[in-house]
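Figure S4 source data
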Amino acid sequence: MGYVSATSPLASLATQARTAYVAQVTGDSAAAWWSAVILTASSERQAERYREEIQRRRREGKLPAKTRYLVAPDPGGRRIGSGGATLNALRWLAREFGTQAARESWWLNQRVLVLHSGGDSRRLPQYSLLGKLFTPLPVTTAWGDVSTVFDETLALSSAWVERLPAGLVVASGDVILTFDAAQLDWTRPGVCGVAVRRPIEIGSQHGVYVLGGAGRVYAFLQKPSAAAARAAGAMLQADEVALDTGLLRFDPVLSARLTEIALGPETGSFSDAPLIDLYDHLTLILTGQFSPPPGSHPVLLALAQALRGAPFWCDLVEGEFTHVGATPLYRRLLSGQTGFLELYEAQQRLGSVAPAHLRSAGVVIDSVLAGGDIKPGAVVLECELEGPVQAARGAMLHGLTDIPGPIEVPEDIVVHQVPVVLPDGRRGTVIRVYGVHDDPKRRLDEDPGATWLNTPMKETLAGLGLEPDLVWPDVPAGERTLWNARLFPLSPAAEAWECARWMLGLGEDYDAARWRAAERLSLATSAEWTDTQALSDARTRRLQANWRATAVSLARSGADVRPLLAHAPGISALAQAGRAIEACARQLEASALTEAASHHYQASLFLAQAGLGEEAARARAAAFQCVQRAVEAGVRDLTLEVATQGWQHDAVSVSAPPRVDLGGGWSDTPPFCLDWGGTVLNIAVELAGDYPIRTVLRRLREPVIRCISEEHGELREFRSSAELLAPAGPGSPFSIPRVALRMFGLARPGCELADTLRALGGGLEIRTIVDLPMGSGLGASSILAATLLRALAVMLGIPLSDQALSDQVMRLEQLMTTGGGWQDQAGGIYPGAKLVFSGPGLRQRLRIEPLGWTESRQAEFSERFVLYYTGIRRVAKDLLAQVVGAYLARETAVVQVLHSIKTLAMEMAYAMREGEWERLGELIDRHWGLNQILDPHTTNAPINALLEELRPLLAGAKLAGAGGGGFLLLLARSPAAAYELRRKLAAAPAPGQLYPYRIARRGLQVSA
């Protein structure tokens, strides 16, 4: 399965489809949509559950109202195959619309979607009744609910239906398809499939099209081997095949013929019809690979007559094919180990951010937990528990409620609680326990792979003392599977949990004797007799439990609002709360800009959850505008005006050292530093005996601004103020010069640039040099801005103190929208190793405290400290917005980290003065861990692998820069370890590079 970025064209197309779907739901769209959506079901009970899901969405206004929604159960619960289910769905369609549905003239104006969602889901037993179609996904809908395959399919189908003039579309209910619908040609007559390119290794597990010219289908293969695919001509380039997505479109002519067959005498009541598979029988009839022999059932003969000779096409599209298959695959989907999540913006992803009271490296969805520890790969679904939860790696907890005390679930184990109502009216609870890797379809006596709790089933039963004849009292030996094993007692929830703990080897409060005496159900019967009303009641309780406090008062108190937003009771309440908080923010703007920023941002979270995307975006923008206004207010009295006497020099050169940040980074960033003050420990360094960050200004005769970026190898001349004032994003190498010229008044609206420059004595060449890799993490961008502002001030004869220079750099970065604090420029303006402090307040007055260590201490440090460029680049802009947004939202973990790193900076300074190198390493490692709380993507697999390899030599390590830049800061355990560390890194392959350095004794330097 391919992976895509949230900014990829495919992700953008998916976002457009979801936006179009919201418009359909709200009734604001005139675009094409489905006349009817029909869901197939394996039984009447499953159909009832599907209808409840649809009715709930309709009551809450979360489905397009103009569509008819039908559910078509297999008649009498008899399995009739996907082809038979398609005919049955068309029969239900005719019941709804009348016999006109069998006429081509009717189909010429209709678009009908059939979602195949029948089946026991035996390999994903959690959804045996509800079906894979309604399995939760680790993302939210536009209105903040936990999304499902059904919701995503309808949303994504917004793109398909626009390509469909009329006819029938059949899709699989266990697949999520995201592709460029512009590649569909559904105007052609006949039948059209849809395929995606995938390696044959994946194709061997699915259907595969054999394609000819213009998309004609020559053959259809089911789960072919590589040899079979190659022999049939199915191979595309690079050993890829055209993988069947399950999507089939029938034109109006064939749609009418199929409906006529569904209503005809051949079909009857399906009581004696054979199992007809849509993707075997129908596709093979279309390709000529199958023809029912004489004497076959009349419905098969009728289908062959209707379809034989019909054109069969396939559109090969670029897209994502996400299959909700067996339990292991579903767990991978939920835990973000597939490409599915990459199609979603971060704010749409669900379950990966844990509530503050819960330690979680797994996924928690639609659950109310008192606390605990969720290990990597673990999944918690639809649980409401008052005791602490310990979910081991890969465990899955589903539906657990009314269980007193702590909950512990071992690795790779599923624990699923099901409320049951028996046919005689008795009610109780079944807690089903099984292994993630168990396949309930495997036969005990025939398949050595038949397991229970991830171990051979016979061994597990013997270990518990359970007799097979009691487990399968009415099942012949050759048909015994985990699916039909009567293992799970029907009892109150607490007693069912005691039995589950006993089965898992976690408790002794239950035994085989109690098990024998209990009434027991299997996976099959517990699914069949699930109490659907009890499930609905449990869902309501979970919603209410997460909305006990008033949303507005919680936000106003400055608390973390994420736990509240995760379980909102409705769109209206969310919208009202968001708008009330937004009104409060506007009132605060005149007196408390940073508090107003927080309320604006909190309001955006409520509004976004309500699906009000534009309002949420405006609120977020207002939050960051308040931060920018707060920064500007702090430097308002520091005017930068053009000197009337003109250029003071023919040329000015300003150079500065980069900075190495050891501690406190992020605490210098507005608005945190404005609220609390910041504390940073950093070191200005020479690299290879040089200051690699420089700005050189040179006066020109011609009245023009010439900008040269040596590191980018680019040159651009500006001849008008309009050119300089036009927006330039952070990716432009000339963003800093353009904003700096604006700040000094050289570029003003309505003023001719040439006139301004002539008055000064000519044009200006601005040459910037950064002899460092892009995204180094050494503060180069801010320090370059400092060199440029200082150079312009000197050139114009404007006094600018070091403190004022630092303030103006922060203002420049706010004007550029990149944000940022003062530590980078302070690190380059001031020399050596130092602590830099600021107090609370809009005006950030810096206090510089040199480290005050001895020459011998500095030499010891330099001997142990290693600077290594990894070759990995990052840009901090989005990260800045992410962390600042998290602080404005008052996310508990983020606020705690920002306060903690201030203390760490001072502890590091003490350790450096005293030569406590082991302690310094511990503090660096702790800081590195805190940085990863702020941004889990600060590190990556290559960095982790390198650090793991070097760990025996290291006292501590972290990446440089708030944005997780490309330089690693490494503190060796000893001088000998430092020698070995440098030797290993010097021999490492490119693009990594060991950088020699020296602690800078001077800060920013001016030559005029």
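Figure S5 source data
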Amino acid sequence: MSASLPTAADDDMPVDFESSPAPIFDTENDGAYNENPDNGDSEQQLGNQKKRKKPAKGGGGPKRITEEALQRRREGRLKAAATIANNLKKTGIGRFEDENGFPYTNIRQVPLVNQKNYFTDYLKRDDQISMNRNSKGDSSELAPKPNGIKRDDDDEDDDDNDDNDDDENGVLGLDTIVIHPGSRNLRIGRASDEYPQCFPMVIAVPNFDSDIVPSVEPERIYDEDGVLTFGETFESAKSLVTKDFRARMRYYKRRVNPNSRDSAAQFNATQTPEIISSSNNPDDKTYISAQSELLKEKKFFVGEEALSLPYGENFSAWRLRYPIKCGLLNQSPDDYRLAQEVLSDIIRIITYALQKLDIGDDYSKFKCMLVIPDVYDKQMVENLVTILLSTLGFAKFGLIQESVAATFGTGVSSACVIDVGAEKTSISCVDEGMIISDSRIYLNYGGNHITEAFTKMLLQQDFPYNSINLRHNDDWELAQRLKEKFCTFDDAEIAIQLYNFFMKKPDEETKKYQFKVYDETMLAPLGLFYPDLFGISSQIDPRPLFPSPVDHYSGELNNPYSKAQELLLANQGFTELPDVDLLQRLIDGRHAYKLGNPGISRPESEDALFFTKKALSIPLDKAIIESITHAGISLDFNRAKKLYDNILVVGGGLAKFPAFETLLNDRVNIWRPRFLSSGSLEDLVSMLSKDKEKLESVRKSLITALKAKKKTASSQDEIELSPEELKKIDEQTEFVIDLDRADAIAEQGQTTPVNILTPPKELQPEMICWKGGGVFARLKVAGELWISREDWELLNSRCLYYKSLFNY
């Protein structure tokens, strides 16, 4: 027989004796449960059970167990549990926290932070940043030890202000190498040098695809009448440029002969080359022979040696590669197939240039100041720094942007810097040594596009050397020389002109050609203001070799961004707006800038970032106005006057043309809206902004009053106005610009003048940025910006957050 003990939950519940057998208890043994009763007493016990089963008299329910019996049951359970625990303890099974001394956990409990009263200074002091500690340690080691002589405070001030004194090693800047890489040339030299050394940024490598015949550039297209054309886009753009050119000639009362082009073309069609001696060729060049042993010994040629190979139809065993294209790492599949090939070419070119400087092979004694574009690609910057520190072994490096370097090179503190390079144009406004981020504009055209357009126009004029192919290096150099010698912006020189040039092909005799030109010498450079003449694609070439730089935390693209670039890509420039929309945009832009973070602006989409999907090719004069306008929104328009007064043109794509200052001045004044030309623009924008703020406060008060009127005493919910009520309030408080009043305020100020700064006579315009980098590297303040090799290996690009003048 088996039975179960009642649980604690059953102690207070009535027992149904009819449905379950009654347990057998030993009443004399404190009510303990007797599981095995004696067999002799079984009949008596059964009799007792039957008696207990009988219902009580009077028909009542089952009899409840007394409280004393329940208490005995509880005590019996406790004794049984104690007996079991004692038996387990004897066998060694149990939990003994007090005996082994082990705590429940080794993790210390951290109390919660009091949100009302807490403070941290993490990374808020210079001594918490390893780079600053290391730089201070280096400075203290290099500092001269005191000799007991106390110096006057005046002497210390003089030493701090004297940036031109020689340092301990001799001439200041002798141990600093300034490097300015470009799409076509690399400028390099010591910071103490007066001029840089210039090397072509090109390398020649064996051509493993020599069976592929390259196409002819520019591609010739002849119509049904046998007239040479270059597509509808080029022809329509040329017609527009010609119309503008003739309007300018009429404005300045210059004579225009309608038959000049035909006359020049007829002369060119009858010209034949003249064979002359090489000694009479001022542009004579020595080429490496196709049978030279150097072609078998060397694996690559760099710089001028690469350009001296005899490229042509009969020599295709080698090809040229430019590792930097449009200010970015060249990722064209026609040139490179691996990312390491690009970096290897850059290493070879820089190493070749350093060897020409004659500074030895140990670069660990030198620092390097790297001049980077205003609109930089982070992937390119970080790879260049890694090459300089890890591969070449420079001790330290520093960064400076091209526009800031240009202001140092010319000695101005604030300017609108226009850098027209070989393949790209950048515009940035610099205020007191800092670039205004939202003023940066990147344009996808440069001096090379002018060369191509000029070549097309010459071919349409029956150019005597009609087999010119810009894919051949010697023909490209010829086109570059013709552009630099004959192209001009001086409309007084536009007439039928007779010119000559010399052409020397590898393993051929020198030939002299004569040709005539008319307005082609001015129409080609005018393409900077009519970019359709260049036929630039609106889509950026794919860049498959290097991954796009992304933020380490958010995973989003984090290349530089500019509000001016974003609006121009969306065709929302200021120069095309009506007067009312223009003023409204200025007010909204100023209001948004005050509410946001002036140091960091965010794009609305990733397409607005530089180097993503779209290429920008708007006229140069309009881009200048857009850049200065955005700078005025960020600062104030009174300071923007100084930017119009200091427009600085650097680079070799524009500043080498005669009279470019006059033409650029005229173009900016023509396209600048009248409100942007007013000297009282800041007062006008401030007044209109205050008027709009007043109307906003009136609108809020009307909404509050209407809600209070509709609210009852018993209502506790928020009152919401209907769309009709809100529309009525908006109509009452609509902000309308009074143009007559705006005109009256604008006329109170004088017209803001436009002034184009000319480069220093002793410096070529393409050398100004390098010179500015050398000047900055010699300043004592530059000592705070050097980043060591150890710091770069530890923190990588995070170093630039603390050690750069700009927001990297």
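Residues 1-53+65-81 form one domain. Residues 681-710 form the longest helix (30 residues).
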